[in-house]
């Protein structure tokens, strides 16, 4: 098995910014959010199971998933959320494993906002947390997205707390500073990870 770095951080903490810097060093990044989104794409077994359970109301006119409808459904009915998670989580996990195994870089990054919450740390040799204060999370997310303050508060409440995340960390990047302060931190960690990955291969 490849040497896997788990990369996580709360909403707006800078995960994507950091993973782009690792990509710049030639490291493959597997993004759990991207996989989760595609697991219910048109033509997938998971979408067939959703359609079987809810009928055509779960689909848009072009036959793809009506994501807004499903979001409301599982928000209103927790048991449906459980059902959906039981359907999708094993599929997401096996797709993740497949992509981690297929990576051709010296080590591979598993980037997941809910790495800690969803127990994906089990797949990782080491965990790197991008850390900022909640205030900075709010400011940067508001500046970037068209989401409301209310939505940001909901997401913050649903994610692990800063301390819970830090408790799972082997390494921490503090991203309170400027963007230019990130690159040297990433470079130093990358050197360390190359050594660790080589030890695992040996
Ligand atoms: P999400 O989980 O919400 O997708 P993320 O953790 O991937 O977020 P990014 O998208 O990397 O976070 O960063 C959030 C926003 O903050 C982006 O607009 C990014 O350009 C900006 N940002 C990241 N780091 C810094 C920094 N050190 N200084 C200023 N802006 C930053």
From TrEMBL:
Superkingdom of the source species: Bacteria
Enzyme Commission number, as recorded: 2.7.1.24
Name used for this protein in its record: Dephospho-CoA kinase
Membrane-traversing stretches: none
Metabolic or biological pathway, per its Swiss-Prot or TrEMBL entry: Cofactor biosynthesis; coenzyme A biosynthesis; CoA from (R)-pantothenate: step 5/5
Location of this chain's protein in the cell: Cytoplasm
PANTHER family: BIFUNCTIONAL COENZYME A SYNTHASE-RELATED, DEPHOSPHO-COA KINASE-RELATED
GO cellular component: cytoplasm
HAMAP family from the UniProt entry: Dephospho_CoA_kinase (MF_00376)
UniProt-recorded Gene Ontology molecular function terms: ATP binding; dephospho-CoA kinase activity
Any GO BP: coenzyme A biosynthetic process
The entry's keywords: ATP-binding, Coenzyme A biosynthesis, Cytoplasm, Kinase, Nucleotide-binding, Transferase
Gene3D superfamilies the UniProt entry points to: P-loop containing nucleotide triphosphate hydrolases
Organism: Pseudidiomarina terrestris
Role, per record: Catalyzes the phosphorylation of the 3'-hydroxyl group of dephosphocoenzyme A to form coenzyme A.
Catalytic activity: 3'-dephospho-CoA + ATP = ADP + CoA + H(+)
């Amino acid at each position: 098995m490849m040497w896997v770095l788990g990369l996580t951080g709360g909403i707006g903490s800078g995960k994507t910014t950091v993973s782009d810097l690792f990509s710049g060093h030639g490291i493959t990044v597997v993004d759990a959010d991207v996989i989760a989104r595609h697991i219910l794409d048109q033509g997938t077994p998971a979408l067939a199971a959703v359609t079987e359970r809810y009928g055509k109301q779960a689909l848009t006119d072009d036959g793809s998933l009506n994501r807004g409808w499903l979001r409301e459904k599982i928000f209103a009915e927790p048991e449906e959320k459980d059902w959906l998670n039981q359907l999708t989580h094993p599929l997401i996990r096996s797709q993740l494993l497949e992509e981690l195994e297929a990576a051709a870089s010296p080590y591979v990054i598993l980037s997941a906002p809910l790495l800690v919450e969803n127990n994906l740390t089990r797949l990782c040799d080491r965990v790197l947390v991008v850390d900022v204060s909640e205030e900075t999370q709010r400011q940067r997310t508001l500046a970037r997205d068209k989401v409301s303050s209310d939505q940001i508060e909901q997401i913050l409440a649903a994610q692990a707390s800063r301390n819970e995340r830090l408790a799972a960390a082997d390494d921490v990047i503090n991203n309170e500073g400027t963007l230019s302060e990130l690159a040297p931190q990433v470079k130093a960690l990358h050197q360390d990870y190359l050594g660790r990955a080589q030890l695992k291969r040996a």
